[in-house]
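User
Take a look at the entry that follows and flag anything odd:
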Amino acid sequence: MSAIYRLPRHTLRIPYTPPTRYRHRTYSNTSRLNKPIQISEAVREALVSKTPIVALETAIYTHGFPYPDNVDLAVKVEAAIRESGAVPATIGILDGIARVGFSQPELERLASTAGQNTTIKVSRRDLPFVVGMRHITAYNGGTTITGTMLLAHMAGIKVFATGGLGGVHRGYPNPMDVSADLMELGRTNVAVISAGSKAFLDLENTFEVLETQGVFVGTFGKAGAKVMLPAFYNRESNVISPNILESPRDAAGLTTIPDASHTMGLTSGQLFCNPIPEEFEIPAKDINKAISEAVEKARTKGVFGKDQTPYILNEIKEITKGASLPANIALVLNNARMGAQVAQELVRLEKREEGSLSSTSTLNFMPPATPPPIPPPTPINQSSTTITAPEILVIGSLAVDQTLKTITKIPQLHTSNPTTTTETLGGVGKNVTLAAHLAGANARLVSVVGKDLAGAWALEKLGALGMDVSGVRTVDGGVTARYVAINNSSGELFIAGADMRIFEGAQMGALAKGEIFKGVKVVCVDGNLSMEGLAEVVKATAELNIPLIFEPTSTSKSTRILSPTLPIYPSTSAISLTTPNTHELTTMFTHAREIGMFEREDWWRVIDNISIDSMFLNTQLSTRLNANLLEEGIIQSAVHLSPYFSRIMVKLGADGVVLVQLLPPATSSTSAALPPGAIVSQGTGAVRGIVVRHFPAEAISQEDIVSVNGAGDTFLGAVLAGLAKLGMNEVHLGEVISRAQKAACLTLRSPESVSERVAEIGWR
């Protein structure tokens, strides 16, 4: 799949070849933790912040659709969930590791293994094998409904959207074939949204087994009417639905039952049947004939077990001459959207339930996880010293970081583990501000803390560092942000938790807006703010014509600033700079494409003016740039985003930094006027061209690296200091990036999140 979504007709497309091996690049070359189950950062953060999540299976991609059609379907399903306000958690096996949440490159790689001998259809019985054998054979696998439910439940995800449920096969007990899906629903506490059971099964006996297993079954429909259970391709079967759900809220209300039922010893799941959209329904008389032929053919050829379902579905597709395929895709997308709606309602109900529990005095309940409503912030007590206007405002997170290191290699669950504890002051906003301060700039942090012991300690520490704390406010009822990591005796992360909710309230956006005023040279904001808070910052800086820099913070937060109405170049309101790593850049590109940011007419005008021709591609980029930057789609993604972010510094970890920036009309694009190593297109109109420049990383041995924490934040802080001192002039960017890389290396050699030695290379 090309990383360039669309380019003007006269512009040569930049090819994107997926690399044979994807790897995570950081400032350190330390090996990835060898764990059998891995939860992605996006899913982990959604769980912590109580964002709606929908689990998705992968057997449909590895054993249902051929490559690359399966990739196209996977992208559409995840996009449908995001557009409906939830986070997709695609579940599968890659390289022998069970993954909850895939990046797009990882999902493409799994889908590309469809049909290979080492790609397995993974149910409950197969999980120990594929995970346990990973040191010998790195199996890939698409999880079935059973496998997906099990892993979703382990991760704490309560809603799962799929196509159709397995069940009792026709002719039972000859063959004696009953899907493990039915047993899993009877013992695993996950709500499954499907278009009923697959139509070629024995539907009556399937739902009899579900009743025996104690599974709640309901169908979305109108109360008081005769509602039938759906039959995959048909909106109705001949089986009456035992229960009716009028809305996603009804389903969410039932999904909250498991939390209470745990205390009663009940563990069964729920099946919410969602009929196929009416316009895609296949008449029963047409599809039933095809089903009978396909089932008989499978029986004649001796196809049984887990191979039977994909075989029959493929035969139905062949018999109907492909007519069943659009119906299959439509019902999967329909279920994904319904799953997102149920997940949203579930989060609302859980938050309301937590609020009601806080008012009770019974000892049978834990205190609510969500803090009470946060009133407007009040200023902290400041000294009478007059504080001058800062050169730099950094709007973002301030947190207390706690690291607990166990004395054992493998921490024990369900009990207390002896640990050593380290407590430091962290947060992206704080780290960036401190680095800018040490690099010689007058920088002010704009953030919030709770009126609690942690907040008081954080303010004391900030003051001891000599930082300007006039932009930090205390919030009554708020809880100071915390990040808690539990590491094993080798220092490897075992589990971590983050509570950053204090930055997502409306008061953070209001505080930021009030702190932005004329005289500030540069404003930087990190992705911890809510979408609404970030929009306030974009608007406030645009009104005062102050350059704005965006630090994405993480893949899940990198998209919060994106919007179809985001200001675009050459407007002075456009964001001046963003500093993503490669994963954040890919996520931003994908999300921008999905929400239509590459369809705007003014976006097309900028892309046309850039004029990326064959000379730029074949003679300059291809021959003078690291091949991986093109093969992995990094340059292509940055070019697409450049009309919204006129300068993009992509952090490549051990490979350095690549700068992609638009040149304004007044800039000369001749080689004599540009620094060595710059690759420039000859633009027209409002854009003089686009420049691409690679800055290799500073040489540093693995033995010299003490900690990678804070290296990226240090880099950005030093960049901000350079921009404040030298201005946004393109001529100085090379010097700014070079010094910032030196600053990052100093932090790599330091146990602190920002090395004190950054002052040695700053602007004084």
User: Anything to note?
Assistant: Residues 1-32+547-697 form one domain. The CA atoms of residues 700 and 745 lie 7 Å apart.
